[in-house]
Amino acid sequence: MATDTTTVAPPGRTVRAGRRPALRRDGRYAGVFLAPSLGGLALFTLFPTAMALAISLFDWPVFGERKFLGIENYSHLLHDPVFRRVVLNTALFVVLYVPLNVVVSLGLAVWLGPKIKGRQAFRVLFFIPVMTPMVANVMVWRLLFQPGGLLDAGLQSWFGVDAPNFLGSSDWAMPAIVAMSIWQGFGYNFLVFSAALDQVPQSQLESAQIDGAGVFQRFRYVTWPMITPSIFFATTMTLITSFQVFAQPFILTQGGPGVSTQTLVMFVYNQGWQFLSMGLASAAGWILFVIIMGITAIQFIGQKRWVTYDV
């Protein structure tokens, strides 16, 4: 007697009963291979994130009694003039750093086109600061910026003027940190843009040139639409990392003068490890998380208007 080997399936599809055990077996194998990664994600990311949210609702000293406060930590931070200044410092760094990083990276990538000799050597040269440890880079720039340092000596010998006190002035400290950060980080976006420009068909550029399009017109109407996905990616990643800036101001200025260069991550560090107030540190960390998520969401919503994926 014949046995029906098919089971109920959506219209247009036939699933053989013999396939079900194989699918279940494949699912088990996939679960075994994914288990270490999922376990690590749960243990080192999801659990600490949940604990940080819970701690932010408490007065949580490292030593001593812990007291539930609800949203009082958040209310305290939002009314704290120091925290508001720290948020403004971080916003200022982001506003200065992100556009300059993208413009410098894209400009150098366009300049180092396929016809430039020694292009590969320049790529390696520009990427070296990214691979160099951040602390080493910051220490070198500290020697450059400090009074009597290389920059001060160069201005005195060449122009007979003294350099400003970059790291000791509230007017110059943040621009100095931005300049150092651009030098440190532009190489990554440079490679992203350089790879995107390599994918622009030369035939389309040549056709536009034959039709009378100039250099800027070819870039605006041919090159730009094709590299907008890379620009969106680079801008988003640079924006996220810029909100998390820490090492540069921590080593260059220690957040000074006063709190003029203290950033959100520095504030979290100081509250947690200097003042041992884990509740306030966690609350500040969650505020930073919400800011980053909100701005990233706005970017993803807005990218539909200017990013072209189907050129």
UniProtKB/TrEMBL annotation:
Membrane protein topology class: Multi-pass membrane protein
Record keywords, A-Z: Cell membrane, Membrane, Sugar transport, Transmembrane, Transmembrane helix, Transport
A single GO cellular-component term on record: plasma membrane
Subcellular location: Cell membrane
Primary residence: membrane
Signal peptide: none
Residue ranges of domain ABC transmembrane type-1 in the record: 87-299
Domain of life per record: Bacteria
A biological-process GO annotation: transmembrane transport
Regions crossing the membrane: 29-58, 86-112, 124-144, 172-197, 230-252, 272-295
One protein family per Pfam: BPD_transp_1
SUPFAM superfamilies the record matches: MetI-like (SSF161098)
Family statement: Belongs to the binding-protein-dependent transport system permease family.
This protein's name: Multiple sugar transport system permease protein
